TrEMBL record:
The protein, known as: GNAT family N-acetyltransferase
Keyword terms, alphabetized: Acyltransferase, Transferase
InterPro entries per the UniProt record, alphabetical: Acyl_CoA_acyltransferase, GNAT_dom, NSI-like
UniProt-listed Pfam families: Acetyltransf_1 (PF00583)
Gene3D superfamilies associated with the record: 3.40.630.30
Superkingdom classification of source: Bacteria
Native organism: Calothrix parietina FACHB-288
Domain N-acetyltransferase per the UniProt entry, residue ranges: 39-174
Length: 174
């Protein structure tokens, strides 16, 4: 079963290209209704920072300086966004990004789904999209830092806390 349908095909690398393709969610998610809103994914980096800030505000995240968010996006290996498309309007409803050494490892950051769309499998679909893109770049070691209340969300996708006793360790400036 073809899970994803490519909207605009491209031969460039998915993680690094700047004119990203859009990929549409399968009918399994859209309810198979040709008149319903479409949900699409993109690796486009040219994201409206104010729209992203609104999305992060909606889940109660602390605001971060936009110039730093812009820099983080520019320097991420993969930027994944999820959009609700109605006619020629689109709304940012999900976001995630990953940093990487471009060879072995990637770390996923800033996973967020707008509360209006939570609990409908969208977060899982966004993570599947991110993992598919990372695997297509032959990245085999994917890590992330889970807030305590979402450990089980990541577990449903096969992430393991502390595999073989490995601990995440942190250093902060005093
Ligand atoms: C965490 C988040 C991305 C999940 O997105 P979502 O669209 O609600 O998740 P889904 O509907 O795709 O859920 C997928 C699975 O995870 C489970 N799940 C979702 N949120 C969960 C949570 N907070 N705790 C435990 N399980 C959760 C679902 O029950 C579902 O399980 P199933 O596959 O067995 O049915 C979303 O709630 C969110 O944006 N939260 C605020 C931001 C945040 O905390 N981000 C994570 C930072 S580490």
């Amino acid at each position: 079963m073809g899970f994803w349908k490519t909207w605009f095909s491209t031969s460039e690398s998915a993680a690094t290209n700047r004119t990203a393709p859009f990929e549409e969610m399968s009918a399994e998610f859209t309810g198979n209704n040709p008149n319903s809103d479409r949900i699409v994914f993109s690796t486009e980096r040219d994201i409206d920072l104010y729209e992203l800030e609104e999305l992060c505000d909606a889940v109660g995240w602390s605001r971060r300086p936009l110039r730093k968010v812009k820099k983080a996006i520019e320097h991420s290996f993969l930027v994944a966004s999820m959009w609700q498309v109605r006619g020629n309007q689109r709304r940012l409803i999900g976001f995630a990004r990953a940093t990487s050494d471009h060879a072995f490892n990637a770390t996923i950051w800033d996973v967020v789904v707008h509360p209006d769309f939570q609990g409908k499998g969208m977060g899982k679909a966004l993570m599947k999209y991110v993992l598919k893109k990372l695997r297509s770049e032959e990245i085999s070691n994917v890590t992330l830092f889970a807030d305590p209340h979402v450990v089980d969300f990541y577990r449903t996708m096969g992430f393991m806390p502390d595999p073989e006793g490995i601990k995440g360790m942190f250093w902060y400036p005093h």
